[in-house]
Write a structure and sequence with these properties.
It catalyses: ATP + (deoxyribonucleotide)n-3'-hydroxyl + 5'-phospho-(deoxyribonucleotide)m = (deoxyribonucleotide)n+m + AMP + diphosphate. This protein has 16 helices and 44 strands. The protein has about 850 residues and is α+β, with helices and mostly antiparallel strands. The strands form nine sheets. Strands 1-2-3-4-9-8-7-6 form an eight-stranded antiparallel β-barrel. Strands 10, 13, 14, 15, 16, 17, 18 and 19 form an eight-stranded mixed β-sheet that branches. Strands 22, 23, 24, 25, 26, 27 and 30 form a seven-stranded antiparallel β-sheet that branches. α11 packs antiparallel against α12.
Length: about 850
């Protein structure tokens, strides 16, 4: 075993000396390092694209994050020993860091949180670090089971080198079957997954046939904490399909904690405000409980016909009718000298239920239900409840937002910041609509408006609250492209306010550019700070089956020039499916198949014909008379089914099956002729974009995955293919006539030597173009990648991203450059007139 290294510098001193905190957004190291914590030890794996891509593996211990740089990242295959360079300790606050470290700073590049969770050392971790053998168990969103770090360097080596590898257990699996790095490349903060041990449990859920003896062995003798930040739930995009969860109704009210000291109770909001004076009767009821000191967690609400009503709660508070308020308690974090936060949830709740046996009508236990989550969710939706709360049965209590508590919403509903208002009927005195927003990375973003859900009394109350907050200009930092929406209103109809108040809003959906649709006001959230309001996401779905990733002949080489195999290609399409399917859905397609690899014979397939691809939809022949049935891909399984059948490229029509004869886009394919330098292609794209802008048309850009670029103009599906093709032909001829030294409007290699050919023929009926994110059957296997116009100058080629690199690139992208494409249906009428 290699000898231990002796570290004599103070904690985090190396971390501090390497960084200029005036320039980098990384968290500064605190002056005082805590020696212990009651919370479970955290771990984080950060994906870091600096000079080269690598993974930073960090384990919390003694108030810092022990850190290793792992170039290839972790792997579930015990045979794969991954190099891990032990680097300087980082502050625990670094576990939440995501962002860009500026150029010329240490570690310059982009960082995302690739995985996070808690870890348990096996044995003494201090001794493990000393002797160079650290064994531990991970509980993350991507990583689980037993792992080991072993030092392999000698005492005089320049780098402290270790090896990271998976121990053999139920979680171990061969790399050929599963590569977690490629399968799950994205940030877990942008797209939370929940604990993998709940998604894919390796042991059966324990049966509970009767009452269990309370297990309070993890309770710690400690003084009553002066303050306690509540645990928060993460919004679930789908119900957990496995795992052991406690399921409660999601109550429609205000979060309320109780601190009881020497029999005296204080009621404290989620934000830490003391509301005891608002509810003295309720505080007195808490003081009647059989306890001397405690921290309790719950929700206050008012029941209307047996269902929690947020509006009724507000009426009760505003009208001082606190006798109608019910305090539902669901957790117990401290009791009579014992800190219970490390005690499993089920035991904390069992103890709480005992305390509340004789509490009366105003203090109640929040009941949990023993039934499948999907069935409970359906029942909650039918009763008009807001949704469900799902909490891991064995979870400890952790302040802040966690993955062990999930909230499943049956209706889209969330808090939004009030940024302005309009007068009802244009007359002062009553609010007619509220102009709303939410924060993204500290910037206030416009999210639309709400104009229903209140009566005349509430309209007058809102007016009285908002007029003292008026200001001259809109408070939004980001108004996106919706400034046009405000300009269509009568001048001066909006009255802007300081963004201090928060509204609870129910709505049908989010638009693609982040605006709420069909919204209804539910009430003010006086318990929530406006600065903490962020977009939560959409309605919770029932669990969906995972796509079948069993690959036949996975070792077959598709691209001899790079060694890309069939397994690589299928896994690429599995990882990109969520982004790619909107570009494929309901569009007839043509597929390029390569059964012998791209160096062999390729052929197009447009119809079902002989080869059956499960999951693809073959449409009725009447859709396109006298032709074989058209095919579409609309699901992950269909996409992977095609990839399994050696489909490399996916090309789509310019119309959907719903309106087959009316194209909803026009495409200009910029194809460089012989001798054309890449800079000329970039210049050509910029000129096309400029001319389209002069014609009043917005356009979006993507690489072709081959030699050129695609410029796409979304349309309202009103004109025929002939009309759209005629416009595209006139547009290209105008380009070639105006700048003949740069553009050619005539096909054929001899006609475009030294020029960029802008292909308008792709706008005819049944013509197709490579879809966004499609791989290309060419050496290197480039990918057609949507990009922003601001990126044009940075592009190096039309095949800049490949099957091997595209998903890594996308995992670091925070914004979708095509987010507004889907809502930008445009008319060609004015542009056609201008071209004549």
């Amino acid at each position: 075993m290699a000898p231990a290294r002796v570290i004599t510098s103070p904690p985090l001193s190396r971390y501090r000396t390497k960084r200029d905190f005036r320039a980098t957004p990384e968290p500064a190291a605190p002056a005082d390092i805590p020696s212990a914590t009651l919370l479970p030890l955290c771990f984080v794996v950060q994906k870091h694209w600096a000079n080269r891509l690598h993974y930073d593996f960090r384990l919390e211990l003694d108030g810092v994050l022990l850190s290793w740089a792992v170039p290839k990242g972790p792997c579930y295959d015990p045979k794969e020993k991954r190099m891990a360079i032990h680097v300087e300790d980082h502050p625990v606050e670094y576990s939440k860091f995501e962002g860009s470290i500026p150029r010329r700073q240490y570690g310059a590049g982009t960082v995302i949180v690739w995985d996070r969770g808690t870890w348990e050392p096996v044995g003494d971790p201090h001794e493990g670090m000393k002797v160079g053998k650290l064994v531990f168990r991970l509980h993350g969103e991507k990583l689980a089971g037993l792992w080991e770090l072993v030092r392999i360097s000698k005492a005089d080596d320049k780098q402290d080198q270790w090896m990271l590898f998976k121990k053999r257990d139920a979680w171990a699996q061969p790399l050929a079957d599963y590569d977690v790095i490629k399968a799950l490349p994205d940030s877990v903060t942008a797209k939370p997954l929940g604990l993998i041990e709940d998604r894919e449990p390796r042991a059966a859920r324990p049966a509970r046939t009767g009452p269990q003896e309370l297990d309070l062995s993890a309770a710690v003798s400690a003084p009553l904490p002066a303050n306690l930040e509540p645990q928060l739930a993460t919004l679930a995009t789908s119900l957990p399909s496995s795992g052991d969860w406690v399921t409660e109704a999601k109550l429609d009210g205000y979060r309320m904690l109780s601190r009881v000291a020497k029999g005296h109770a204080r009621l404290i909001t989620r934000g830490g405000h003391d509301w005891t004076a608002k509810f003295p009767t309720l505080a007195a009821k808490v003081e009647e409980l059989p306890l001397n000191s405690a921290w309790l967690d719950g929700e206050i609400t008012v029941l209307k016909n047996g269902i929690p009503s947020f509006a009724a709660l507000q009426d009760a508070i505003d009208g001082n009718a606190s006798q109608d308020i019910v305090y539902f308690l669901f957790d117990l974090m401290y009791l009579d000298g014992k800190d219970l936060r490390k005690v499993p949830l089920w035991a904390r709740r069992a103890l709480l239920a005992q305390l509340l046996e004789s509490a009366g009508e105003h203090i109640r236990f929040s009941q949990d239900f023993e039934a499948p989550a999907a069935r409970l969710f359906e029942a909650a939706s039918g009763l008009g409840l807001e949704g469900l709360m799902l909490k891991r049965r064995d979870a400890t209590y952790e302040s802040g937002r966690t993955q062990t508590w999930l909230k499943a919403k049956s209706r889209l509903r969330q808090e939004l910041v009030i940024c302005g208002f309009t007068a009802r009927g244009g007359k002062d005195g009553e609010v007619g609509s509220l102009l709303l927003g939410y924060y993204v990375d500290g910037e206030l973003r416009d999210s639309g408006s709400v104009g229903t859900g209140w009566d005349a009394r509430t309209a007058r109350d809102l007016w009285a609250r908002l007029t003292p907050l008026e200001m001259d200009a809109a408070p939004f930092d980001v108004t996106v492209a919706r400034q046009r929406r405000w300009s269509r209103r009568s001048v001066g109809s909006e009255r802007w306010v300081r963004p201090e108040l928060v509204a609870e809003v129910e709505f049908a959906d989010w638009t693609t550019d982040g605006v709420i649709r069909q919204a209804s006001f539910r009430g003010l959230r006086i318990d929530r700070p406006a600065t903490g309001v962020i977009r939560e996401g959409g309605k919770t779905r029932a669990p969906e089956p995972q796509p079948n990733l069993k690959i036949t002949h996975p070792e077959r080489v598709v691209d001899p020039s790079t060694g890309v195999t069939k397994a690589d290609l299928v896994r690429y399409y599995a990882s990109i499916a969520e982004r790619m399917l909107p570009h494929l859905n309901a569009r007839p397609l043509a597929m390029v198949r390569a059964p012998d690899g791209i160096a062999g014979q390729l052929f197009f397939q447009k119809h079902a014909e002989r080869t059956n691809m499960p999951g693809l939809t073959a449409h009725d022949r009447s859709l396109w008379p006298n032709h074989p049935p058209l095919l579409t891909v609309g699901t992950v399984d269909a996409l992977l089914s095609a990839a399994q059948m050696n489909v490399v490229e996916f090309h789509t029509w310019n119309s959907t099956v719903r309106r087959l004869d009316k194209p909803d886009r026009v495409i200009f394919d910029l194809d460089p002729g012989e001798g054309v330098k890449w800079g000329y292609v970039q210049e050509a794209a910029l000129l096309v974009h400029t001319l389209l802008s002069e014609l009043g048309l917005q356009a979006w850009l993507k690489t072709s995955g081959g030699k050129g670029l695609h410029v796409i103009v979304p349309l309202a599906p009103r004109l025929s293919y002939d009309a759209v093709k005629a416009f595209s032909q006139a547009f290209v001829r105008h380009l070639a006539k105006t700048i003949p030294e740069r553009f050619s409007a005539t096909s054929g290699a001899s006609n475009r030597v030294g020029k960029v050919y802008v292909d308008y023929l792709r706008n005819g009926k049944a013509q197709t173009t490579a879809a966004a994110f499609s791989a290309r059957a060419r050496a290197g296997m480039g990918v057609s990648m949507p990009v922003s116009w601001e990126q044009l100058s940075e592009l190096k080629s039309g095949s800049q991203w490949t099957v091997q690199t595209a998903r890594e690139y996308l995992s670091f992208q925070q914004q979708d450059p095509w987010a507004e494409y889907w809502s930008a249906a445009q008319s060609l009428a004015s542009a056609i007139k201008l071209l004549k």
